[in-house]
Structures are given as structure tokens and as C-alpha cells.
Specification:
It is a single chain. The two termini are 23 Å apart. This protein is 84% helix and 0% strand. With 123 residues, it is an all-alpha fold. It has one domain. It is elongated and about 50 Å long. It contains four helices and no strands. The chain crosses the membrane at residues 39-60, 67-87, 99-120. It is found in: Membrane. Belongs to the UPF0382 family. Keywords: Membrane, Transmembrane, Transmembrane helix.
């Protein structure tokens, strides 16, 4: 679990920084201010949850169990659905892609709940 989550954290961290730079330099003059803000929201959530996956990786060494694994997995799925749908929406202009975004948000919430339950079970 450690290696998998470290690799996911590195991937999402790397791509989050790259996408943030792409937005700041490559999309600044191509997207409306509203769409640029939406894209930046996706980047912000991706980077925050890349760090959360990194924390899960470190915790998985000391707190083995299903809940910690679920937390990391839900954070990763949340990034793909939440941030990915925002990127796709802004780059394609297809507003219906926004329907997917809340599903990713629920994945983030469920991941944090799993992390909280893991802490609760520590006694």
C-alpha cells in the first residue's frame, strides 16, 4: 500500500503543478475568467488531495487496515472525478460534464470520513 499511494501522490502532485502552470501561462488568454477560476479550483483540490494521499501512504505503514486504504483510494477517485471533470468542462465547454463533479466531491468527503474513522478506532 505504501508504494502505491506514494506513486499516486507523486503523480497527482506532479500533474497538479503542471496543470496549474499550464493554466497560468497557456490558458490565461484562452479561457474566460470564470472558466479559469473553475480550472484553478480543480488544480487546488487535486494538490490538496495529492498531499492527503501522501499522508495516507505514510499512515498506512503504522495503521494497516481497510479504512486507511479506502481513504487513499477515495481521494484518488475524487481527484479523477472532481478535478478531471472541471478540467474537461473548462477545456471542452461542455457544461454537462459538471454533473460528474459532485460525485468526486462525495468521494473526497468519504475519504476524509474513512480517515476520521481510522483515527476514532485508535481509541
Amino acid at each position: 500500500m505504501l508504494r502505491s499511494f506514494l506513486m499516486l501522490a507523486a503523480f497527482f502532485g506532479f500533474t497538479g503543478v503542471a496543470l496549474g502552470a499550464f493554466a497560468a501561462h497557456g490558458l490565461k488568454n484562452r479561457l474566460s475568467a470564470d472558466y479559469l477560476a473553475i480550472f484553478h479550483t480543480g488544480v487546488s483540490y487535486q494538490l490538496v488531495h495529492a498531499l492527503a494521499i501522501l499522508a495516507v501512504a505514510m499512515l498506512s505503514v503504522h495503521l494497516p487496515g481497510r479504512l486507511i486504504g479506502w481513504a487513499g483510494g477515495l481521494f484518488a477517485v475524487g481527484i479523477v472525478l472532481f478535478s478531471g471533470s472541471l478540467y474537461a468542462l473548462t477545456l471542452s465547454g461542455v457544461s454537462k460534464l459538471g454533473i460528474i463533479t459532485p460525485i468526486g466531491g462525495v468521494c473526497f468527503l468519504a475519504g476524509w470520513a474513512c480517515l476520521g474513522l481510522t483515527a476514532w478506532r485508535l481509541g
